[in-house]
Amino acid sequence: MTGVTGTATAGTAGNVEAMIIAFSVAPTVTGTPDAEMSAAVAEAVRIVRDSGLPNETNAMFTLVEGEWDEVMDVVRRATEAVCAVSPRVSLVLKADIRPGYPDQLHQKVESLEKHF
């Protein structure tokens, strides 16, 4: 991907420092007949929460906000935690990259809520 670096200044075109990642990571192989995966997912979420980055977890995804390198490092470490307990892992990632707009984890929801 051309132009993707973590070194641009805030508000500069091509900057990927301000971003939200929504991701889901889960084992595709589990050791239980009911395919329970909450323990493995909890280890991934623990890494996100311990990162110190703004984050939220819901039933489908975990959201993390920060700079490209730090967010991707958290996703990598969370994925590695699940890989430690499963020979195959599913990872789904969605990114919202918006330079110059901090705290979008909350601002996006506030912007929506004002219409109700």
How would you describe this protein?
The protein has 116 residues and is of the alpha+beta class. The protein contains 3 helices and 4 strands, in the order βαββαβα. Strands 2-3-1-4 form a 4-stranded antiparallel beta sheet, covered by helices on one side. A hairpin with a 4-residue loop joins β2 (55-57) and β3 (62-66).
Keywords:
single chain, 116 residues, alpha+beta, 4-stranded antiparallel sheet, disordered N terminus
What secondary-structure arrangement, pairings included, does this model have?
Elements: E1 19-27, H1 38-50, E2 55-57, E3 62-66, H2 68-83, E4 89-97, H3 104-113
Structure in a nutshell:
It contains three helices and four strands; from the N terminus they run βαββαβα. The chain has 116 residues and is of the alpha+beta class.
Structural class: alpha+beta
Helicity range of the residues? 25-40%
Please tally the helical runs, counting DSSP H or I stretches of 4 or more residues.
3
**What portion of residues belong to β-strands?**
15-25%
Average pLDDT, to the nearest integer? 86
Give start-end ranges of low-pLDDT stretches: 1-12
The helix/strand order is EHEEHEH
Q: Radius of gyration, rounded?
A: 16 Å
Global outline: globular
Total strands: the figure is 4
The strand line-up of the biggest sheet is 2-3-1-4
Major sheet size, sense and barrel closure: 4 strands, antiparallel
Distance between the termini: 38 Å
